[in-house]
Structure formats: C-alpha cells, structure tokens
UniProtKB/TrEMBL annotation:
<dbReference type="GO" id="GO:0016846">
    <property type="term" value="F:carbon-sulfur lyase activity"/>
</dbReference>
<keyword id="KW-0862">Zinc</keyword>
<keyword id="KW-0456">Lyase</keyword>
<protein>
    <submittedName>
        <fullName>GFA family protein</fullName>
    </submittedName>
</protein>
<feature type="domain" description="CENP-V/GFA">
    <location>
        <begin position="2"/>
        <end position="112"/>
    </location>
</feature>
<dbReference type="InterPro" id="IPR006913">
    <property type="entry name" value="CENP-V/GFA"/>
</dbReference>
<comment type="similarity">
    <text>Belongs to the Gfa family.</text>
</comment>
<dbReference type="GO" id="GO:0046872">
    <property type="term" value="F:metal ion binding"/>
</dbReference>
<dbReference type="Pfam" id="PF04828">
    <property type="entry name" value="GFA"/>
</dbReference>
<dbReference type="InterPro" id="IPR011057">
    <property type="entry name" value="Mss4-like_sf"/>
</dbReference>
<keyword id="KW-0479">Metal-binding</keyword>
Length: 131
C-alpha cells in the first residue's frame, strides 16, 4: 500500500497496486501543469482510492488531469483507459519505481539538463531517441 497527498493535505490517496515503470514527460501540457516536467507512473484505476475532491481538467479530448483546487498540486493523469498515472512527487515515502523513459524531449525547456542513462525520446514512447 502506497499513500500520497497534495501540498495542503486536502486530497489524499491510497494505491493498492505497485506502480508501473515511471515516465518523465516534457510535453508542453505537462510543463504548464507542473511548472517543470512531469514524472508519473501508472496503476490500475481500480487500485487507487482518492479521499477529497480533486478538480479535473480535460487537457485534451478524453484525457483529464486531476489537481487540488486549493493548493494546485498536480496529482493524476487519466486517459480513461483503465489505468491512471500518479505524479510521483505526491507520493509520501518510497514509490518502488524509477524513471525508465523521458518522452516529448523535443519540447523540454532550455533550462533542463537531461543527463541520465535512460532513453530520451523525441516524441512519445515509440519515437526515435535523441541526445
Ligand atoms: Zn491541496
Ligand atoms: Zn506530458
């Protein structure tokens, strides 16, 4: 069981499943939503229980981003496909997972250093690697 919360603590969650491999996303939407870039990992939607009332923003058709309406913490990314991605910075304690891919690196900020050894994809997971 993993637990997490937003900055103010009004939204808390528990995850019964283990997180899948984490992805760092540098797309424009994730940059705007987080203020930097997103690091998140998927779990089955039915393994996540949310306490509190996140606000959901439909950032593209069928994809919703959940955040705390009070403190603004970006918590969840839901494509409606049965899994949900959890922002790993909101997990309290160990996550048990690790970044295995960077995606949409073509859109990363010019202030970022991408120096780790995992793949840096130009666009999505199946796109070519850059750098
Ligand atoms: Zn909050
Ligand atoms: Zn993104």
């Amino acid at each position: 069981m993993r637990r997490g919360s937003c900055l103010c603590g009004d939204i808390r969650y528990e995850v019964e499943a283990e997180f899948g491999p984490a992805t760092a996303c540098h797309c424009i939407q994730c940059r705007k939503a987080t203020g930097s870039y997103s690091i998140a990992a998927p779990v089955p939607r039915d393994s996540l229980s949310i306490k509190g009332d996140p606000r959901w923003f439909e950032s593209s058709p069928g994809t919703r981003r959940g955040f705390c309406p009070d403190c603004g913490s970006y918590l969840f990314w839901d494509e409606g496909d049965g899994s949900i991605w959890v922002s790993l910075g909101t997990v309290d304690g160990a996550t048990g997972t690790r970044v295995e891919n960077h995606i949409f690196c073509a859109y990363k900020g010019d202030y970022e250093n991408l120096t780790d050894a995992v793949p840096h994809h130009r666009e999505g997971w199946s796109s070519e690697e850059i750098e």
